[in-house]
């Protein structure tokens, strides 16, 4: 191993110490759901927003709240409803008649970690207001623009089974989320532990901060330096391009994909693969890092065709076929 990669390995080991403490603090409250915990931390390290989808009761909200409590950062939960206004999210101008001037009242989006609960229940104009904050890390109130605190992370939840009173997220906004996580039911053993731990009234969760915001920002700089071989870069490109032109990669999927992944998918897959390597304590990316994180990057960026729906194929099914059939470096 070259001296340069060894130096990056040493930096990763030095600056990833907080990860174990963060996981341990979250696991005091969250039973199982290791996939969810790992992906939340990857989003945090990658400076990428996360969309969580799962039926009610799978600890989506609790996981985000616990992550925020385990960091010495500010946290705001915003319940999205059909009558929510953009001003309720980003803030507004308040007129002071005595002084004849306006003052700015900042909204709940001015926090490090934002939980947008049931984001698909708010109308498009509210979702658009969140869009600028997610993409630019700033908001505009009147004629003034305000920077949001760093780190800034939006974690949104949506319920996949109840469609009444919901507004489907536009593709442009869905694409702004780095990861889309599909949360599944716990195993039998995990649910037994949940039963033993949670089936009491007035249950309190005492979560203490174990990591500072500065440590997260430093870790992000280390993630940027993680080594990515040219063969891994080509592998990432082949995965993304095979969603657009499957025939070029000898994949019989053209009838099932209407639109493939955007260039943002290439960027996000690269950064998230580096963050995944960081969690494993490595200063270099392997093909397995890419394969592990690819479904979370791609599942909300593939628009499948009617033929795929008729054959009951999902985006995850198509991604699995791509990853299984493409040559691995």
Entry summary:
Helices cover 47% and strands 16% of the residues.
Low-confidence spans: none
Strand content: 15-25%
Strand order of the largest sheet: 3-6-9-1-10
Major sheet description: 5 strands, parallel
Q: What's the number of extended β-strand segments?
A: 13
Query: What is the rounded Rg?
Result: 21 Å
Question: Per the principal axes of the C-alpha atoms, what is the gross shape?
Answer: globular
Q: Count the helices. How many?
A: 14
Distance between the termini: 18 Å
Mean pLDDT score = 86
Q: Give, in order, the helices and strands.
A: HHHEHEEHEEEHEEEHEHEHHEHHEHH
Please give a structural write-up.
This protein has 329 residues and is α/β, with parallel strands linked by helices. It has 14 helices and 13 strands. It has helices at 3-15, 17-27, 34-46, 60-69, 86-90, 124-136, 171-174, 188-198, 213-225, 230-244, 263-279, 287-298, 306-310, 315-325; strands spanning 50-53, 71-72, 75-79, 91-96, 101-106, 113-117, 138-141, 144-147, 153-158, 179-182, 211-212, 257-259, 303-304. The strands form five sheets. It has a five-stranded parallel beta sheet. Helix 10 (230-244) packs across helix 11 (263-279) and helix 11 (263-279) crosses helix 12. The chain starts with a helix and ends with a helix. The mean pLDDT is 86.
